[in-house]
Specification:
The complex is a heterotrimer of chains A (309), B (163) and C (90).
Chain A lengths: L3 E5 L3 H5 L1 H13 L3 E4 L9 H7 L1 H18 L2 E4 L2 H16 L1 H11 L12 E3 H17 L7 E4 L12 H12 L3 E2 L18 H19 L3 E4 L2 H18 L7 E3 H8 L18 H13 L4 H8 L4
Parallel strand pairs in A: 1-2, 1-3, 3-4, 5-6, 5-7, 7-8
Chain B lengths: L3 E4 L9 H11 L10 E4 L5 E4 L8 H5 L5 E3 L6 E3 L9 H5 L6 E2 L6 E2 L9 H5 L5 E4 L1 H13 L16
Antiparallel strand pairs in B: 1-8, 2-3, 4-5, 6-7
Chain C lengths: L19 H10 L7 H9 L13 H14 L1 H4 L2 E2 L4 E2 L3
Antiparallel strand pairs in C: 1-2
The chains are: A alpha/beta (309), B alpha+beta (163), C mainly alpha (90).
The structure holds iron/sulfur cluster (SF4) (3 copies).
Chain lengths: 309, 163, 90
């Protein structure tokens, strides 16, 4: 596959998860994926809100982001489930409905721009699983055996009836040798959307219930890929800490960080220590212990040698 | 007969996006109390969604003393005529799932009207847990859902935890 | 106003209240969250450019967005004054 990607950052990742951004932007090239930043990007914007308020705004502002990639002659890579749904669905509508595309271009014309709908929008997990290849990840990733995590897939990962992105998520974690510990509330929403209607409900009925169940399993981390969910968990954790002295000790981490470590980066190379919801020192220690002691069979070591560093 | 909404608890994440979309469509704001559909916690785990089924033989209509509840023979949609309703709540008590609720402002009952055939709630459901389908399809799906063993939506995800 | 026209209802804008402040941020900086000093530092430690290559760096993207929003006319529909970045009605 020689697909070329522009990475759409969205609102949360560049401002709250620099470690995830760095991990993605540095690991993907190592895995042979041609990726650059999607520059001049703005809020995706939130499809859930704009579909009800004014559909034209959703389609037009989404195309404003998509056309930056189109101008670069690249496909869009998205790692936030929310941005993925917004951009993917907008792209689908604009491809299927020439009238909508025409209307969008009328508005984009006000800024001297236009969009043609000639690109694809792909999820970070699709790129990892399909382009890089799950087999290659299974073969070449340094196994993070002994690491136990809880997962939060998120709502918007479920737009496909065949559930393939959801499956990719667990299979990739599996391929890294990480153990997924069930906590019973995996499918429940993080509560981000509820914030707009009822903040108490979002924090206590959604986020806190998940956090409680996760805390009980004593896992090393909570793994997600969605920046929107991260935003909600971060807000909930800090609200609960201030209001109720509730301490959530499990670090919330992005799948890209595990991928980065499994492909030979050290946690400090992508700034894993800073801007966290909970201290990650124990997790980093554990990761270093695992990668430091894990000895690769000779042929596996040879295979990883060929990965460009 | 037109389509009905079917909710599949096995897919629902409880995000309540459908509820905010409904209250926005009807009242221009995000307010769970005003939403005409409700997503509630199933005590066994997971979520159930309570929404009007636009019954073939509606109890709400049978109970209404003012003749305000109308069933459109063509589309099958059950609505409440705002000019005829006297706000006695008989429909709420008669409905097996208490769908009609007191509206904000006028003291009369309101209920789901299928958004005139283009349900707003379905457009925003990312997990595709609510679908619009014909009554025959809905019957088949619901029997299938009733036949499958109860798996709370909060089950661990298949394929996980093989390690 | 209320004293002069006691029966007049306040204008209600078709926008969920919780979204209002978010829209202002969206249309002034292009994204929901600003770049803070803490963030610059953390980004540098992660080996990234302190200011992300989003609308944070390219201010003209915000101008474009504003032009587009004006062309659609949503700013008028929701009663948002884009020049002063405040809502005309409460
Ligand atoms: S939008 Fe869909 S997934 Fe979310 S609560 Fe409603 S039915 Fe469930
Ligand atoms: S309000 Fe209740 S009784 Fe009436 S049509 Fe709807 S579900 Fe049936
Ligand atoms: S069809 Fe319309 S009125 Fe009925 S629950 Fe959905 S959004 Fe509400």
């Amino acid at each position: 596959m020689t697909a070329k990607y522009s990475h759409f950052l969205g609102c949360v990742m560049p401002t709250k998860m620099p470690w995830a951004e760095a991990a993605i932007m540095r690991t993907l090239p190592k895995l042979g994926v041609d990726v650059v930043y999607l520059e001049r990007s703005t809020c995706c914007p939130r499809a859930g809100v704009w579909i009800s308020v004014d559909r034209r705004v959703w389609l037009t502002l989404a195309s404003f982001n998509l056309l930056q990639a189109e101008q670069q002659g690249r496909d869009v890579l998205v790692s936030c489930n929310g941005c993925y749904v917004t951009l993917f669905e907008a792209n689908k509508v604009l491809n299927a409905d020439p009238k909508a595309l025409e209307e969008v271009n009328k508005y984009l014309g006000a800024a001297g721009l236009s969009y043609h709908g000639n690109i694809r929008v792909r999820h970070y997990l699709e790129v990892l699983y399909e382009d890089v290849g799950i087999e290659r990840i299974r073969r070449e990733a340094k196994k993070l055996t002994g690491l136990r995590v809880a997962i939060h897939p998120g709502c918007h990962m479920r737009i496909w009836a065949d559930g393939h992105i959801l499956r990719y998520f667990t299979e990739i974690i599996d391929a890294l040798g990480v153990e997924i510990v069930p906590y019973g509330l995996e499918q429940m929403c993080c509560g981000l959307q509820s914030n707009l209607a009822d903040r108490e409900f979002a924090t206590y009925e959604r986020a806190k219930k998940k956090l409680d169940a996760i805390q009980e399993t004593e896992v090393d981390g909570l793994v997600l890929v969605c920046a929107g969910c991260y935003d909600q968990f971060e807000r909930a954790v800090s609200t609960l800490r201030k209001k109720d002295n509730y301490d959530f000790k499990v670090p919330v981490i992005h799948l890209a960080e595990l991928v980065a470590v499994a492909f030979g980066m050290t946690p400090d190379e992508f700034g894993m220590r800073y801007m966290r919801t909970a201290p990650v020192d124990r997790l980093i220690e554990k990761l270093e212990r695992i990668t430091g002691t894990a000895r690769l069979p000779a042929e596996l070591a040879a295979a990883t040698e060929n990965v460009p560093r | 007969m037109a389509d009905v909404i079917v909710h599949d608890p096995a897919l629902c994440t409880g995000c309540r996006q459908c509820m905010t979309a409904c209250s926005f469509k009807k009242y221009g704001t995000y307010n769970y109390n005003l939403s005409l559909c409700k997503v509630l916690e199933d005590p066994r785990g997971g979520f159930v969604r309570v929404h009007c089924h636009h019954c073939t033989d509606p109890m709400c209509k049978a109970a209404c003393p003012a003749g305000a509840v109308l069933k459109d023979e063509e589309t099958g949609v059950v609505t409440i005529d705002q000019m005829l309703c006297v706000g006695c709540k008989a429909c709420t008590y008669a409905c097996p799932i208490s769908i009609p609720q007191m509206g904000r402002g006028l003291k009369i009952m309101v209920k789901c009207d299928m958004c005139g055939g283009d349900p707003e709630c379905i457009k925003v459901c990312s997990s595709k847990a609510i679908k619009l389908m014909s009554r025959e399809q809905a019957d088949a799906l619901v029997s299938e859902m009733a036949a499958r063993p109860f798996v709370p939506a909060t089950r661990p995800i298949a394929g996980a935890n093989k390690a | 106003m209320k004293e002069l026209y006691p029966w007049r209802k306040a204008v209600k804008i078709p926008l969920p209240p919780a979204v209002k402040p978010q829209l202002i941020r969206h249309f002034t900086i292009g994204l929901l969250y600003p770049v803070t000093d803490e963030l610059r530092e953390a980004r540098e430690k992660a080996g990234l450019d302190p200011v992300p290559p989003t609308a944070h760096r390219y201010r003209d993207a915000v101008d474009d967005i504003q032009k587009i929003v004006r062309a659609i006319g949503v700013d008028r529909n929701v009663g948002l004054d884009l020049d002063r970045m405040e809502y005309k009605y409460k």
